[in-house]
Amino acid sequence: xxKQIKVRKPAKAxxxxxxxxxxxxxxxxxxxxxxxxKMGAELxxxxxxxxxxxxxxxxxxxxxxxxxxxxxxxxxxxxxxASAGNPQER
Length: 90
Description:
Elements: H1 11-83
């Protein structure tokens, strides 16, 4: 019977991988700053427009959710009056 020997990768490989990821993240950040500087006012105006559009979408979806929740509550509230023995409805 022969024993199998597990070969482990050196720990340095993982450190190098993390360093590579950190460097790529740093470079992506620098690239973002560079693009923002080049685009300047145009980028700011685009972001403002996107923000306004997102706000409108989120407000309309919030309003739809509120209406739906209200519609869900109304049938239950109406049905609770007589069956719950509400003295005002007798």
